[in-house]
Structures are given as C-alpha cells and as structure tokens.
C-alpha cells in the first residue's frame, strides 16, 4: 500500500538486487540467515504491525554477530544497496519496513543476554533481544527494566534504543538517553563504533552513543547495548480511578505526585471512548462504572505495607474530596495485570476495529485532552471513533481515530490540522514513536529548520550514500 498512499515517493538510484549480490551474502552467512522466499519468508518482514505500509524487499539478512553486520554494511555501501534495519517490527510510524526493495537487515538472531551485574545494575545485551526475555533474565538478578511497553513480547532492545522508546515507566526512570550507558553501532561503511561503555559517568568529550538513540536506523545499526537497570521493586501496587472531568484528572495527577512521591511509577489516562473500544473489542471488563475518564496509577517500592498505606490513603482522599467518583486497588498481581490490560491493549483493540490514524504527540499537560475535543468537533461523524489516552504523567497523548478502511478524505481532514495544532502549543509531533515514514513531512512543524538542517548534515556525514533506511525521518529526498 505504500506506493498508493505515498505516490510522491520515488525510488532512489540504488542497485537492484542481483544474483552476484546474493552469492556474496550466501558466502558470508549460513542458509538460514539469508531469506529469499517472497511468500513464505518475506511477507511478514515487508508489512508493519498496523498493516498500513508494505515494502517489496526480496531479501532478508539475519546476522548473528556485530562483525557479520559490519561485513554486510561494508558490501552494501560499496555496491550502493539500500538497507532497512528491522527489530521486532512493532514500530508505529512505518520506519521498520522497506518503502521499495531495500534489503531488510533483521536483528532477530542477535538475541543473547551477554552479562548482567546485580551490583552495578548493568546488563549487556545483543540488540535483537526481545524486551520481555530481557526482563525475565533481569528478574533472576533482582533487577528490572527501566522501560516497559505493550509491545514487550515482540519489540527488541535495539529497536527500543533506535526509537528512544518511552512507555509506561518513563515517569519514574526517565528515557533511554539516561539509561543507556553504552552501545555498539555499525556505521554505513561497515566500521564498528565501539561505545559499549558501562561507566555511569564519562565526560570525555562528545557522547556519540546519544546520536544513535532515536536515530531510527538512519545513522547506524545498533548491535549491542549496555543498559542501566534499577533494582526490582518488591512491592508493586495498582489503582484504577473513574473521573468525571478533565480538571479532576489534572487534580488527581497533582495529588498523586504529591502524596506518592518517589514510589509513583506510572500515571496513565484512558478516556471513555478508548475504554469502550478495549472492553467491547477484546471482551475485557472495567472494574468501575462508566466515566468520561479513567486513571491508572502504579507504585513501585520496597515496602508493601508502606506503599499500600500510601495508595489507600490517596484513594480515600480523592474519593472524599470528590476528585474521583469511583476507584479500586488491585488486591493481587492477577488483578493488577487485568487492570493494566485495559490500558496496554488499547492499541490492539483499535487495530481490530478497522484502519487506525495514529497520533503520538507531546502537549503541555493542561492542554492534554483539548486536542481530542477539537478533533472530534472537526471530524463530526466521519470516523468510527476519535479517542485519546496515554502517558498523562509525561504529557504524551495518544490520539487515535478509526474508520472502516483507509480513507483519504478523512486523512486530509486530520493532517496537517493535528500537527498545526500541536505546533501552536509548542509540543512535539512525535513524543515516543519516532518519525519514520509517516511523519517525515511534519518534522519541521515542531523542530526548527536549523535543527533539521544539522540533522541532515549529520546524516550525510555518517551515511554519505544514504543507504541506511532511506525515505525515513527527513522530508524530501536526501539523494538530490
Ligand atoms: P522496529 O519496529 O523493528 O523498528 C523501529 C525503528 O528502529 C525502525 O526505524 C528500524 O529501522 C529501527 N531499528 C530497529 N532495530 C534497530 C537496530 N538494532 N539498529 C538500528 N535501527 C534499528 N512505543 C513507545 O515508545 N512506547 C509505548 O508505550 C509503545 N507501546 C506500543 C504498544 C504496542 C502494542 C505496539 C505495537 C507498539 C508500541 N510502541 C510503543 C511502538 C514500538 O513498540 C516501539 O517503537 C519499539 O521501540 C520498536 O521496537 P522494535 O524492535 O519493534 O523496532
Ligand atoms: C501505548 O502507549 C503505545 O499504548 C501505543 O504507545 C499508542 O496506539 C497508540 O496510539
Ligand atoms: Zn505510548
């Protein structure tokens, strides 16, 4: 569908894959690392999670080591072959699949946890390690991940680093720019950039690893990551509140921050329409009655009695002063998981409803929900639903609009309207999902032309032939 939806995209003048190229890859990799069967092997790699963009790659390469990645990139650079790095392919902005026939470089076989040190909290991991697997290994070492997201069963730590993924713990542990201590990246010319430091502090000039965090496969391929992981909390409590107005949502956030302090680890918002979607599409049950808004609060700490007492007293206060209308606390981990499903599975529920127009924006906290109201007024009865949810504590709104099928009339009513609105609020057109293909024409709505100019200069420096994930992040063509 990419060609139909983005008719103005033109294939760059890259080499077409030949038998000679294929023979080279087969000479340096084992048969199971070179996939060419378009119907049986390649289709899943060519389509994104949302089924909204599809490439037509004829080759997937699955290296096992940093050196193999190096040899692949060195050859591709010399032969002018375009590459699309791919992790778990859960990206939501069309960045993880090829636009045309770029060779897919899948990190899936590089999934080893190399070392975990409980004392320093540092885990060294290959980029293709699935987040959930890493979390399981960390738990055995009394550690936990500084990030968590609904896609944890498929997304990879390398993909998380490449997108600077946020998620539901960012409120507590900050983003990956702070948690990644080091990484190894392979540059477009095949050179291996070893920044795999495990030092928490290192002020020796420019911190080059930061460039790769959030670079979405355009500056290099991340092959190893050294991650700083916090101690595993021994007490996790979850509360779920029903709220009758957005003013009271803000007051709930304020009081939760004030009274829970250092143990607050998540503060997530669900609106009525998102709740209606997740309960009806996935047959889940809400623990409280019908309200315009719901807030999920999580605490993570080391003393269950102390944490439960704090959350209980918050619930009492909020109910007594009328800030919330109803509320419940999870009595055990099963109940906590069920409450989290109402929040984490909204993306899945929306996807099962039809085509999804997805917007992941940063906005000032007081204006958090305004965009949903404004958009509803603009769209009237055109869509099936227009809903808002997300990481309230971080000012990150997920605005989602659904329709039976892809509809350009509806799309043109949403874009660029939505981005103009975010720009006027001095927010960001992408809070955590990245720019990828879908937002490349809008990056300058919230990033200054000077910043984008220097990003382009950096891209040119690191990847002069533009072989790494072309057509992504930057508007226009980099090949001109
Ligand atoms: P992919 O989707 O495969 O790739 C994403 C981008 O990174 C692409 O541009 C790709 O080229 C590049 N890339 C991947 N691996 C590498 C590598 N090793 N080196 C260089 N470049 C690479 N995102 C959030 O931020 N917060 C959330 O809460 C969240 N929740 C989600 C929930 C669901 C149900 C789904 C489907 C997605 C969610 N996402 C969320 C989006 C997505 O999961 C994240 O962007 C994730 O970090 C992508 O990881 P991945 O391994 O799937 O990468
Ligand atoms: C989430 O927080 C993800 O659930 C997905 O970032 C958001 O579907 C979305 O809009
Ligand atoms: Zn999110």
UniProtKB/TrEMBL annotation:
Its main location: other. PROSITE patterns: FAD_PCMH (PS51387). It is found in: Peroxisome. Keywords: FAD, Flavoprotein, Oxidoreductase, Peroxisome. Residues 53-232 form the FAD-binding PCMH-type domain. Gene3D superfamilies: 3.30.465.10, 3.30.70.2190, 3.30.70.2740, Uridine Diphospho-n-acetylenolpyruvylglucosamine Reductase, domain 2, Vanillyl-alcohol Oxidase, Chain A, domain 4. The keyword Oxidoreductase applies. Its EC number is 1.1.99.39. It comes from the Eukaryota. GO terms for cellular component: mitochondrion; peroxisome. It holds the Pfam family FAD-oxidase_C. It catalyses: (R)-malate + A = oxaloacetate + AH2. SUPFAM superfamilies: FAD-binding/transporter-associated domain-like, FAD-linked oxidases, C-terminal domain. One of its GO terms (molecular function) is (R)-2-hydroxyglutarate dehydrogenase activity. Its cofactor is FAD. Catalyzes the oxidation of D-2-hydroxyglutarate (D-2-HG) to alpha-ketoglutarate. Also catalyzes the oxidation of other D-2-hydroxyacids, such as D-malate (D-MAL) and D-lactate (D-LAC). Exhibits high activities towards D-2-HG and D-MAL but a very weak activity towards D-LAC. Belongs to the FAD-binding oxidoreductase/transferase type 4 family. This is D-2-hydroxyglutarate dehydrogenase, mitochondrial.
